[in-house]
Amino acid sequence: MTTDLHIPYIHLMMKDVNDVGNNYELIDGPFGFGYGIDINAEKQQCQSMTTTTDDGDCAYDPIKCNNGVSFSIWERIIATLDEFFGSHKMEDFPKKYIISTGGDMMGHPGIALYHHAFLLINDRIVAYSTEGISVTALPPLDPPELMIGCHKTSTDTTYRHYHTTQLDEFAWWNRRLVDEDVIYFLGGYEGESENIDPDEFATMLNRTHLNDPVQLAVAASVLEEMTRATSDDSFNASTATDEERKAKIESFNITLESVKKMTDPKFVPRCILEKDLERSMTIIKVINNLMDESKKEDWLLYEEEHGKDVFLLCQYMRGYLHAVYQGLLCNNTQSGHTVELSQMCIKVVKRTIDIGYSTKDRFTIPGCSGLGKVLVPVNLFSDPRCNHRTANFRCTAYKGIHTMQASPIRLNTGAFNTKVDNILDSLITELDVNTDQILLPNGDLDPKSPRCDPDPAKLTTHPIIVTHRHFDPQVQFRKPLFHAGEVRTTIGTRICVWWNPALGQHGAWDRYGCRVWEAKPEYTKCACQHLGKYVIIAEKLEPMEVPEEPMWLTIVRYILYGVSALCLILYIIVVGISGDLKEKFHLMGMTLAAMLLAASVFMVLSDLHGVREGRHTCAFFGIAIHFLYLCASIWVGAIGHATFKCITSGIVGGSLRPYLYLCVGLTLISVGCVLTFLLKHMGNDPRCFISWDNEPEYLFFCPLGAACCVGLFCAIVIFFNLRTAALRNNPTMTDYRTFSLGASFFTIYFSTTWVLGFLTYFRLDLDFSFYTFFQILNGLMGVVLMCCIGVGSSKFRMVFAGQAKKRREMFLNYTNKKGGDDENDDTKKLGSPADQTPPTRPVTPSFVAGRPVSGGSMFSD
Predict the structure, then answer these.
(1) Half-sphere exposure (CA, 13 Å, Cβ side) for 260?
(2) How far apart are the first and last CA of the chain?
(3) How far apart, in whole angstroms, are the C-alpha atoms of residue 694 and residue 128?
(4) Does the predicted TM-score (pTM) go above 0.70?
(5) In which element (H, E) is residue 666 found?
(6) How far is Cα 462 from Cα 517, in angstroms, rounded to an integer?
């Protein structure tokens, strides 16, 4: 736009001198500037342009350049050592013309630029002249002629002074370029490619003929320099403004669009020579740079904005490499290629399918530099004509792309346990297969040839076997790791997966279609039924961590457990030493108190560091807590059942053994199932409760919940039947009513406490912790028991107050007053003076609220 004459393509706009065809060699010009020419003095190669117009008069006769003149041409100098070292002897070397319009110092008008030996400039002016010399004017060339690479004059029209060099981009201005305009000489060229920004590159790319492999390679080499990893920390995503983030994303997006354009398969030649393969792979080096970890922040921003991650590059590369390796069909069909870069290693095997088909089901693509290998089935195509085609098997191991995945990684949520961490535990390996095209003699595709895509049904019976080496060679958690010498691991299981592009909007890892073929701590072999990308995903064991208990809670619950222990001990002592309390209900209460006392002791001692540190010790305490609290819960249900029969049927006697056998038996079954089938889950809870895992806790909370439901049902019935109980209004019966009522309240309290215990210890992923409430209620358990079935029982109160003798006299007086005919009198149970013989009589049925009450002694045996 600024020039008066611009010749960007010398070979197209100028002609060969001496009528010699192809009087040049075509070379790559600088990126964005097309082709240059390589000329050789020995071959007398030179380019020429003649004109009959006045547009170039200034160029051919400088006297007409009223505003001065400026011109430029780009040269890559080629010189011999003799020319460098002998530059001070200029007379020993001929002149080598770069540009000439026929001018010289003999008086021929025009301009000329030539080398006479070589002066080492080093970016400094070393010679200049401000005055000309006086000569006799001679005529100019007629017609005017511009020569590049040689020289002649109007009096000697023989082309001479040829030059061996490489030239490009001739430009002419019919004016002197002032200082601020000398940048025009560069024509937009940026000498340091890494200083080109993506916008400038995209503009240059629009001027590049990408269907020319030479220009495509030049563009790729510039983009490779631009995308090399740098240590520039000027951008910080956490502190950047919205405008800065937007600019960063836009710049990265322009780079990706350039990559997408340059990897378009339509720009790949139908036939690529073996020696040109390296040039075709230049753009892969750009993709390699964009997979470097230094670009992770760019990818995360890009994914946040566009939803696409680094796998977008794999998509671009796949189509491009398809076309490249199909283009090698003009070479030997049996070949292999390896491209090893910093972020990926590409192995390509080019072979016909039917080779070895009758003797082998698979052939091996070896790994790169010790990476895993791939076994590929040969029976891939359903059309038999495809078995004679040449196929390209490309296996790519991505060395660093796994670090570019956003966290958490995208998964098929229905196929994985998303409650735990899922991490990539191997390099990502990709297998791609395509066949060479069948071309007609004119170079077009044969429309009758089959497409020859791999048949998914074939891969079902002949899967691809991929060997992955693990990043972390731990054993996975698959054995009962409980006894001494166990191997600790953080990996729950390893899963073979493939990238399913059909999942979600942009694809996700999927386990369906891949299975573990062989598993070792160091590697896993996967059998997959899909072509694509494969990796090992390790499901991490859930961290067994609980929030640290606040100090106030520790102090409060220790006080509560201590007070409760004193209450339980007091209750046990009172019932144990008092003959008046040796009846069924208070004996059941004493047994319950003993269970709760032992359970609370183990609950408190489980806080000790020595207990929690050793897994066997922790498991023992967990089993003890399991046994004692479950036994207590079933005993609560038994007390509820006993009081239920007392209130509804008037039955207050009976043996304690059936209840005891049922309680201990059910508890032993629960604990035994845990020890038999779930031992590996024991001893892993940070608080040394039953287990960190839910499986053993099912066997604790299910029977506990059932026992509490029985107790709660009995309590509800008792509440509604106290006023119509099947007991005569005898002062003796007051004891049973008060005990039943207190037992019902305690059942409700106990059940409420362990509902909170379930929400505390059973992992439900709740946002709220019930641990504090459970510990406070559980710490008060002994106090509540003393209040409900201790102080709440009229009989216990009188005995505790030292009024047992007075109580016996009261009931004897009551019996004598009634004539000893009350069948519900409990003087037999309470005992009487040795010389007193209680009257006996047949038991007659009684009626309460209009219904018969069955007989049976109300006294305990």
Answers:
(1) 9
(2) 120
(3) 91
(4) no
(5) helix 657-677
(6) 13
Which positions ≥6 away from 678 have C-beta within 8 Å?
691, 693, 695, 696, 699
- C-alpha distances in angstroms, 45 versus 16, 19, 758, 824? 7, 10, 94, 136
Residue 782: which region, alpha, beta or left (left: phi > 0; alpha: psi -120 to 50)?
Answer: alpha
Greater model confidence, 617 or 445: 617
Q: Tokens 């958690």 identify what position? A: 477
Phi and psi at residue 374, to the nearest 5°:
-130, 130
Say how far apart CA 555 and CA 622 lie, in whole Å.
22
166 vs 39: CA distance, rounded Å: 6
d(C-alpha 712, C-alpha 125), whole Å: 105
**Centroid of chain to Cα 570:** 59
List for the chain the helix, strand, coil content (%; round to 5).
Answer: 45, 15, 40
Report the b/e string of 822-834 with b at 16+ CB within 10 A: ebbbbbebbeeee
Q: Are 318 and 265 in contact (CB under 8 A)?
A: no
Is residue 393 predicted with pLDDT exceeding 90? no
- Which of the two residues, 445 and 815, has the higher pLDDT score? 445
Phi, psi of 803 (to 5 degrees): -110, 25
What is d(CA 466, CA 378) in angstroms, rounded to the nearest whole number?
15
Nearest to 343 by CA among 408, 411, 294: 294
* Whether pLDDT at 501 is above 70: yes
Measure the CA–CA gap between 323 and 436, rounded to whole angstroms: 9
| Rounded Cα–Cα distance for residues 12 and 570 (Å) | 113
Helix (H) or strand (E) holding 336: strand 335-340
Of the candidates 400, 533, 416, 384, the one whose C-alpha atom is nearest the C-alpha of residue 464 is 533
Task: Compute the distance between CA of residue 698 and CA of residue 678 in angstroms, rounded to an integer.
Answer: 11
Q: Which residues pair with 364 in a beta bridge?
A: 375
For residue 504 the two structure tokens come to 């979600």
Measured CA distances, 832 to 16, 799, 812, 828, 837 (Å): 143, 16, 8, 7, 8
Q: What percent of the chain has pLDDT over 90?
A: 34
Joined together, the tokens standing for residue 333 give 């069909």
| DSSP run (H or E) holding 630 | helix 615-649
Instruction: Give the residue-averaged pLDDT of 716-738.
Output: 73
Both tokens of residue 694?
Answer: 């839910």
Beta bridge partners of 513: none
Q: Is the dihedral of CA 777, 778, 780, 781 positive or negative?
A: positive
* Cα separations in angstroms, 331 against 176, 270, 340, 752: 55, 12, 22, 81
SS3 15: strand
